[in-house]
């Protein structure tokens, strides 16, 4: 067995402490990985796998990434599910050699990089939160806590295990911490949310230890000042703090004081509904196609994150909703002011994340100037805002003041365009620090400084030929001719260094010191700048709490003006929101579909009305596929959601009675990984709705029962509609192809029929996309199949079968076997042969020509004749070419 080198022994010792993470082991300008880490990283990053030495007689696999570009590799690894322990050199190689020539540079892990603990700008989406969450159940008490260490957000709420899935769907955390032993119970729920699950020892969830950690973090003697928290809530919050201490190696982020949330304060939306309505994510998983993408006109990262929070968690507190709507109304009414505010907001940096990076000591000079720029724009925005405003905006304005001293300090200390890293220097402005200015002068103008000393010595001694020179042996020295040597010896300042044939060389204490300072000026300048950087950072962190308030205020102003810009530009109206059960919408539109139609330059969106809670709580919607039923269902749900998020809505008018829960069962999908068919998924989601919906819920259901046999599906849809009406007693839009259900409108007092209108013309169906009261007479499925491009023979055969079925139904029913006997399987007419194109007159004329018998004159005349025939050819006259022209041109 080969001996293990000291460096490899150090690596193995550190790696043993982080068995579940890839170890980025710093070696000079590279992070190196060895053994299995190297194999896994090389495959994930698509980089070369090499080897370095042997261990246990086996080659040691190795790969590496440059330190200066490590962030990009980190992002790739995190997205692929890895965790990375970053191991840095804690001393210089020169310092290590002082302990012995074979001493290994001391190294240690400075940070464990996980999905929920990212702070670097390049690793995060600027316009989205990156939450780290923790869930714990203590006997009958459960809680969920979550934090975004890149912005300081910190929240907690009591939560039953059954509600964990919907809350994870709302927050979309990157990582969820659970107590060891809970992994199996929560695996399915966490997998659905897309979060990485991290088990943590039970001790991290101990409520007494958690309370001590939280009190130490916030420097308080008790958590009572922040609210009354249950044991489970304290445990969940404490687990997050414990995990941050582990991953950040003691450098805790600037978390804000915890905010306790309650389920009753926000609209409850389950995971399936969020997915079906595409609230913050489209069907492809990204922003494209989502409601968020359609309505986002925010100009700052903080405003964008606030918008996503509002759409994910519409309020159920009437005063909160009204306050938000009042602010948007003010911004709409003050159009010129809103435009000026948005112009200023464009220059607002991300204060929250700059603060967080500085707090974790991962910031740089640009974070300092980001804070300065944010304060400058905050002052400009405060100056624009009047005193007569809605309360929400007035509170935001008050949070913009109080930073004049800090802004002035940063403005005096920092240059306009600083470098990325503090170690690069050059970010402190000239004139701010006298010593730094001197070091820079020595570094940049050493020759002129020496020339000034030379002139001074010439004046003091009266020797005009005195020179200050430099060589690699003596460094800087004063040189005079031998004739002036006695005069120099007589001056105590000058110490003899060397005598040559014609010259005598001296030095002075002042010159030696100056030489040292010149040689060390560059390094000393960097040291001074780092010291000043730390001082400025400390000044900022001392004001972290009011700076965070300013960041929130800027986000609120940005979101308010963005929603006003949206309302004005898209002709949206202010909804009337109250505690009633009304859902009355006139001229409602689907914001995503309307935007898509406009971008495509297609037909305008057809607006429709909806009236629930005023005579009928349930609309039974019939009509053909492709007519717009699903769009109608979704648009009304989104209008209610937007209204309670505090936005104007895409409608002529809207009266929204507060919606407590929003449920959606639309679309078809399976879950084969769990052995669930499309119909099983449909039934599971329907069951969740029927078991949970209360009287203030809004439910949209599309084609319940379509995944099974006709009579099974009809009976399930029938029973579901009766349950919604009699048991849940909620508001609902129920779309179906089962026309038999329309009879229930005459039996159930709070059910009304509605249909999407169509027109038929020459056997084709024309969709009008208009919703009106009444029931559809049929589904028009065969016509839709024809529009989809089914072969004519299939469409014709379908019409024959449909006529037979309908005739049998009118005659009292027809048995399937009898129908099959009456309609032979191969009775469909064969497709017609393609029609032969008509003959061309030009072609016929050419066939009658004998070129060898034509004279030149006759040939030319024949060409003119053929051209004349081409001009009047009925076959070629209107045949287009690739350029949009006719062939004859």
TrEMBL record:
InterPro entries: DNA_mismatch_repair_MutS (IPR005748), DNA_mismatch_repair_MutS-lik_N (IPR007695), DNA_mismatch_repair_MutS/MSH (IPR017261), DNA_mismatch_repair_MutS_C (IPR000432), DNA_mismatch_repair_MutS_clamp (IPR007861), DNA_mismatch_repair_MutS_core (IPR007696), DNA_mismatch_repair_MutS_N (IPR016151), DNA_mismatch_repair_MutS_sf (IPR036187). SUPFAM superfamilies: DNA repair protein MutS, domain I, DNA repair protein MutS, domain II, DNA repair protein MutS, domain III, P-loop containing nucleoside triphosphate hydrolases. Residues 697-713 form the DNA mismatch repair proteins mutS family domain. The keyword DNA-binding applies. The keyword DNA-binding applies. ATP binds at residues 623-630. Gene3D superfamilies: 1.10.1420.10, 6.10.140.430, DNA repair protein MutS, domain I, MutS, connector domain, P-loop containing nucleotide triphosphate hydrolases. Keywords: ATP-binding, DNA damage, DNA repair, DNA-binding, Nucleotide-binding. Pfam families: MutS_I, MutS_II, MutS_III, MutS_IV, MutS_V. It comes from the Bacteria. CDD domains: ABC_MutS1. Transmembrane segments: none annotated. Belongs to the DNA mismatch repair MutS family. HAMAP family: MutS (MF_00096). This protein is involved in the repair of mismatches in DNA. It is possible that it carries out the mismatch recognition step. This protein has a weak ATPase activity. NCBIfam families: mutS1 (TIGR01070), PRK05399.1 (NF003810). This is DNA mismatch repair protein MutS. It comes from Lacimonas salitolerans.
């Amino acid at each position: 067995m080969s001996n293990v080198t000291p460096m490899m022994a150090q690596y193995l010792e550190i790696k043993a402490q982080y068995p579940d993470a890839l170890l980025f082991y710093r070696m000079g300008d590279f992070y190196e990985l060895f053994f299995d880490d190297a194999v896994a990283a090389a495959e994930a990053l698509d980089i070369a796998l090499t080897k370095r030495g042997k261990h246990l007689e086996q080659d040691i696999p190795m790969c590496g990434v440059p330190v200066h570009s490590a962030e990009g590799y980190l992002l790739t690894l995190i997205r692929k599910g890895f965790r990375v322990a970053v191991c840095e050199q804690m001393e210089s190689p020169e310092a290590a050699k002082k302990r012995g020539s074979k001493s290994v540079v001391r190294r240690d892990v400075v940070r464990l990089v996980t999905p929920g603990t990212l702070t670097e700008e390049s690793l995060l989406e600027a316009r989205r939160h990156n939450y780290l969450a923790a869930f714990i159940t203590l006997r009958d008490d459960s809680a969920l806590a979550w934090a975004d260490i890149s912005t300081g957000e910190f929240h907690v709420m009591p939560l039953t295990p059954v509600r964990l899935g919907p809350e994870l769907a709302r927050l979309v955390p990157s990582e969820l911490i659970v107590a060891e032993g809970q992994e199996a119970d929560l695996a399915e729920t966490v997998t659905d949310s897309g979060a990485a699950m991290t088990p943590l020892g039970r001790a991290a969830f101990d409520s007494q230890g958690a309370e001590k950690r939280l009190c130490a973090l916030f420097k308080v003697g008790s958590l009572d000042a922040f609210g009354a928290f249950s044991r489970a809530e304290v445990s969940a919050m404490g687990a997050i703090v414990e995990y941050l201490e582990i991953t950040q190696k003691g450098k805790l982020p600037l978390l804000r004081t915890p905010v306790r949330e309650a389920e009753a304060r926000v609209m409850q939306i389950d995971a399936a509904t969020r997915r079906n309505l595409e609230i913050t994510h489209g069907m492809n998983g990204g922003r494209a196609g989502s409601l968020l993408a359609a309505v986002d006109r925010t100009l700052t990262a903080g405003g964008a994150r606030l918008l996503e929070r509002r759409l994910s968690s519409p309020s159920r507190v009437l005063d909160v909703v009204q306050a938000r709507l009042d602010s948007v109304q003010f911004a709409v009414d003050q159009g010129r002011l809103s435009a000026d505010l948005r112009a200023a907001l464009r220059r607002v940096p991300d204060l929250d994340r700059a603060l967080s990076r500085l707090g974790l000591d991962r910031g740089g000079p640009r974070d300092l100037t980001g804070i300065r720029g944010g304060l400058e724009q905050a002052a400009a925005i405060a100056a624009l805002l009047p005193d007569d405003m809605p309360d929400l905006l007035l509170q935001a304005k008050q949070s913009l003041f109080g930073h004049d001293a800090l802004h002035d300090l940063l403005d005096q200390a920092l240059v306009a365009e600083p470098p990325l890293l503090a170690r690069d220097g050059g970010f402190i402005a000239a004139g701010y620090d006298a010593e730094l200015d001197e070091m820079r002068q020595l570094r940049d103008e050493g020759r002129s400084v020496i020339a000034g000393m030379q002139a001074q010595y010439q004046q003091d001694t009266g020797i005009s030929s005195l020179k200050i020179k430099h060589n690699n042996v003596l460094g800087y020295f004063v040189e005079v001719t031998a004739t002036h040597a006695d005069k120099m010896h007589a001056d105590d300042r000058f110490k003899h260094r060397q005598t040559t044939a014609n010259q005598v060389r001296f030095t002075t204490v002042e010159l030696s010191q100056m030489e040292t300072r010149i040689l060390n000026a560059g390094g000393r300048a960097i040291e001074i700048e780092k010291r000043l950087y730390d001082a400025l950072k400390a000044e900022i962190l001392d004001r972290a709490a009011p700076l965070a308030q300013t960041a929130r205020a800027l986000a609120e102003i940005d979101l308010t003006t963005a929603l006003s810009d949206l309302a004005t530009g898209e002709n949206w109206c202010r909804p009337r929101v109250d505690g009633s059960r009304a859902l009355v919408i006139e001229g409602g539109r689907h914001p995503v579909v309307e935007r898509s139609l406009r971008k495509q330059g297609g037909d305008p969106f057809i607006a429709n009305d909806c009236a629930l809670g005023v005579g009928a709580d349930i609309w039974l919607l019939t009509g053909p596929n492709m007519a717009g039923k699903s769009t109608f269902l979704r648009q009304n749900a989104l209008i209610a959601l937007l209204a309670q998020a505090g936005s104007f809505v895409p409608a002529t008018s809207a009266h929204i009675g507060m919606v407590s829960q929003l449920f959606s069962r639309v679309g078809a999908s399976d879950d084969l990984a769990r052995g669930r068919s499309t119909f099983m998924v449909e039934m599971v989601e329907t069951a969740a709705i029927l078991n949970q919906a209360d009287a203030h819920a809004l439910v949209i259901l599309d084609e319940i029962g379509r995944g099974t046999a006709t009579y099974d599906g009809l009976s399930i849809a029938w029973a579901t509609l009766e349950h919604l009406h009699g048991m849940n007693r909620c508001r609902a839009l129920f779309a179906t192809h089962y026309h038999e259900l329309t009879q229930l409108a005459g039996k159930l007092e709070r059910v009304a029929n509605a249909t999407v209108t169509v027109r038929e013309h020459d056997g084709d169906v024309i969709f009008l996309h208009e919703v009106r009261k009444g029931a559809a007479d049929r589904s028009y499925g065969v016509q839709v199949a024809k529009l989809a491009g089914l072969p004519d023979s299939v469409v014709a055969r379908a019409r024959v079968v449909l006529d037979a079925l309908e005739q049998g139904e009118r005659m009292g029913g027809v048995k399937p076997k009898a129908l099959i006997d009456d309609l032979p399987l191969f009775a469909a007419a064969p497709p017609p042969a393609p029609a032969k194109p008509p003959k061309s007159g030009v072609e016929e004329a050419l066939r009658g020509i004998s070129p060898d018998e034509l004279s030149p004159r006759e040939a030319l005349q024949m060409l003119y004749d053929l051209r004349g025939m081409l001009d009047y050819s009925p076959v070629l006259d209107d045949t287009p070419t690739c350029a949009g022209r006719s062939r004859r041109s």
